Amino acid sequence: MTALSENDWRLVREESLTGPMCMALDAVAAETAVAGGPRTVRVYQWEPATLSLGYHQNPEDIDWDFCEREGITVTRRPTGGGAIYHDTYGDISYSIIAPADELPSDLMETYELLCQPLLDACSVMGVPADFASETAPALHEPACYLRDIHPAHDVICNGDKLSGNAQYRRRDSIIQHGSLTYHATPERTLNCFVDPGVSTERVHERITGIDEHSDVSRTDAVQTLESTLKTWANATEDGWTDEERARAREIADEKFERSAWNRDGDDPMT
Question: Would residue 157 show up in a list of annotated catalytic residues for this protein?
Answer without folding.
Answer: no
